[in-house]
Amino acid sequence: MPTVASSRPNTPSSPSPSSRLSARLRLRQLCNAANLTTPLGLVLALASGCRIQRGPEGLVLAFGYRWAFPDGGAFTVGNMVLFRPHTAPTARLLEHESRHATQYAWCLGLPFLVLYFTAAGWSVLRTGDPASRNPFERHAGLVAGGYCERPVRWPRRP
Hints:
Blueprint: E1 4-5, H1 23-34, H2 37-47, E2 51-54, E3 60-63, E4 74-77, E5 80-83, H3 91-106, H4 111-127, H5 135-140
Parallel strand pairs: 1-2, 3-5
Antiparallel strand pairs: 2-3, 4-5
Region (Disordered): 1-20
Transmembrane segments: 104-125
Organism: Citricoccus muralis
């Protein structure tokens, strides 16, 4: 059974993490709860046996994701960031995934998945890589997400 851990007890002397969030991050958190992507991420994390804890910027971190898809070291669904066992939640990676959480909110939740995978397909056609020309990955920061930028394969000019 997965465990839910908190990095800090919720006592009167330590306000809950959501009360310390900026208005922008709190709005993102509320949007991703309302558009059902964070609940979907939570179901995915629990079903895959992840250990869950609160993270920075209103994110919820899930450790120990072992399912085959998707194949990255970490990925975001709403405000949930799921990590594979070998991936550490570095500050840089968390910033990258936090930007994806914002993208979910801006795209009104589940439509983000369609837009993201369409952009990933376009990037594969252009570069052979799902991230290099994917505007969502470029905005989140290719290097911060562990990606190398590959050159465009076409069109080639004479």
